[in-house]
Amino acid sequence: MIVTIVGIGLIGGSMAINLKENGFADTIIGVDKNQEHIDKAYRRCLIDEDALLEEAVAKSDLIILATPMDVIVQLLPGVLDLVSTQVVMEVGSTKVAVMEAVKNHPNRGNFVATHPMAGTEFSGPEAAVPNLFNNKCTVLCEIENSNEKPVELVQKLYASLRMQIVYLDAIEHDVHTAYVSHISHISSFALALTVLEKERDEKRIFELASGGFSSTVRLAKSSPEMWIPIFKQNRDNVLDVLDEHINTLSKFRSLLIKKDFDEFYKLIEKSNQIRKILNR
Amino acid sequence: MIVTIVGIGLIGGSMAINLKENGFADTIIGVDKNQEHIDKAYRRCLIDEDALLEEAVAKSDLIILATPMDVIVQLLPGVLDLVSTQVVMEVGSTKVAVMEAVKNHPNRGNFVATHPMAGTEFSGPEAAVPNLFNNKCTVLCEIENSNEKPVELVQKLYASLRMQIVYLDAIEHDVHTAYVSHISHISSFALALTVLEKERDEKRIFELASGGFSSTVRLAKSSPEMWIPIFKQNRDNVLDVLDEHINTLSKFRSLLIKKDFDEFYKLIEKSNQIRKILNR
Questions:
Q1: Across the interface, do B117 and A210 touch by the CB < 8 Å criterion?
Q2: Can you give the pLDDT of all 280 residues of chain B as single tens digits?
Q3: B2-168 CATH
Q4: Which chain B residues are closer than 8 Å to A184 by Cβ?
């Protein structure tokens, strides 16, 4: 099978490595408007050839859109214009805007919306790694609007990556990812800024930063190119969860002010229940 | 050398493993008011014998207090009452309250206040691990108030654990740890609560939780027994940093409301500078 990957970054590049390695793809064609990414992708043997989008679509059986979210939404209708039997999938982090972009497209059935819940705080072809997807979950969204064969192909692809498939509609997806992914990023960005602000006076404090600190701010390394389009498209959900998060922090603040450490203790105990989820 | 460790938990137990393994200690005496901890410590071969506090102090060359912070402050003056040539050190997470507790003690010179910046989200003797301290930083506080020999012994101990020593006064220490440790814990506790609250309606969302989420909420597994005394003793600094953190999150909130994604982009870029610290 010939697979085109549009956007050879962390996700696209990692798909390239793994789909070639596990035999799902015979040939990987890379499409990326950034020539440096194409050069790096060749150097790391992520792609077999590169092409412009139109040519790549014509040659391929499957086209995977793995660019930042705004570019996915912008490219998708044009890519669907070009296909006949080809299957098109995207791997972005929001879904409502994607569904809106294709809802009346005559080739809607060739398209499958997906979201592999895997990633790191790094980006670009240099961030591509083997086994990024192993044993993680992926979302398939509103497959009732896709044709049967494209859905089967995408299921086969994710099975080859050893991912477990969860089926959601676009609205559910966007709410859930706001909770389990997007808010974590905002929390890390904010924590990094809070501490960096302090660092201006006190260079030494980072000598003391331990594993716990690194863990909570790790995601603050994530690129704005990727995240701004996500926050734009999922703004209302993110705002809602951010409000709740600020309220929870304000509750802690209020308990500190009142020195109500009994209630504080209970809240920590309650938050400890996250164990049962993280150790799942 | 005979070393008594009071509080055989994550830190005390890990010290026991490593000080015995590297030859610094010939005998480890465990003191813990929780008999279950003592039993576990024997089963895991963390200690050679156990004793009541008074007896253990009489037999030892070095006494390490590794209980929760409130118990350290409460026990410390009584332990200093018992010593003649013995050295006493503590390994807790705040310092101002400790210094206050011993400032006029006739045996103040025998005491060294320290804070090894190492840990995990787990607690109890079962959490003790080898090499917890390797290549991390430890703080020694206000050594000018300790006698020379006790300071040298404690320096030798931390060298044996391959820790780098940073010297701070108690006030500095408590401000810095509020920034690089305590706020990370509050942020994780709050994030866990925010998401757990949502889970009541929607069991499925955790299927989607990926590595990023786990990383930012990992510390929410931490025990309230350990953390409430820290927040009590470092309340004013924690409140100050928490205010700043809520302000930063509110700035993100305001930018989302105004759809000012250009400014949002700049803030993410700024927070990306945390790379230079985390990759140190």
A1: yes
A2: 999 999 999 999 999 999 999 999 999 999 999 999 999 999 999 999 999 999 999 999 999 999 999 999 999 999 999 999 999 999 999 999 999 999 999 999 999 999 999 999 999 999 999 999 999 999 999 999 999 999 999 999 999 999 999 999 999 999 999 999 999 999 999 999 999 888 776 666 677 787 888 889 999 999 999 999 999 999 999 999 999 999 999 999 999 999 999 999 999 999 999 888 776 5
A3: 3.40.50.720
A4: 191, 212-213, 215-217
Task: Return the CATH class of domain A2-169.
Answer: alpha beta
Q: What is the mean pLDDT of residues A4-8?
A: 98
With contacts defined as CB-CB under 8 Å, which chain A residues touch B119?
210-212
Chain B residue closest to A118 (CA)? B210
Residue of A nearest to B226 (CA): A265
User: B29 with B1: CB under 8 angstroms?
Assistant: no
Model confidence over A113-135: pLDDT tens digits?
999 999 999 999 999 999 999 99
Chain A CB contacts of B170 under 8 Å are none
In chain B, how many H helices and how many E strands? 13, 8
pLDDT in tens, A190-214: 999 999 887 676 666 677 787 888 8
How far A270 CA lies from chain B's nearest CA (Å)?
A: 7
The ipTM value here is 0.92
Q: Give CA angle at A33 (A29, A34), nearest 5°.
A: 100
DSSP code of residue A45: T
Lookup: tokens for A68? 């930042």
Q: Which chain B residue has its CA at the smallest distance from A258's CA?
A: B235
Q: How far from A112 is each of A89, A117, A145, B86, B210, CA to CA, in Å?
A: 5, 16, 8, 71, 21
Write down the domain spans for chain A.
2-169, 173-278
Closest CA to B7 of B87, B76, B64, B57: B64
Per the CB < 8 A criterion, the answer to whether B242 and A256 are in contact is yes
Same fold for the pair A2-169 and A173-278: no
Q: Does A173-278 carry CATH code 1.10.3660.10?
A: yes
| Cβ-Cβ contacts under 8 Å, A187 against chain B | 187, 191, 216, 249
Contact yes or no for A194 and B205 at CB 8 A: no
Name the residue in chain B with its Cα closest to that of A261. Answer: B228
Answer yes or no: do B210 and A277 touch at CB < 8 A: no
Q: Which of B136, B190, B215 sits opposite A215 (nearest CB)?
A: B215
Q: What is the CA angle A275-A279-A280, rounded to 5?
A: 115
The pTM (predicted TM-score) of the whole model is 0.92
Q: State chain A's mean pLDDT as an integer.
A: 95
pLDDT in tens, B3-14: 999 999 999 999
Identify the closest residue of chain B to A192 by CA–CA distance. B271
Minimal Cα–Cα distance from A181 to chain B, Å?
A: 6
Q: Is the CB of B190 less than 8 angstroms away from the CB of A275?
A: no
Those residues with Cβ within 8 angstroms of residue A133's Cβ, 6 or more apart along the chain or in another chain: A14, A15, A18, A116, A118, A158, A161, A162, A163
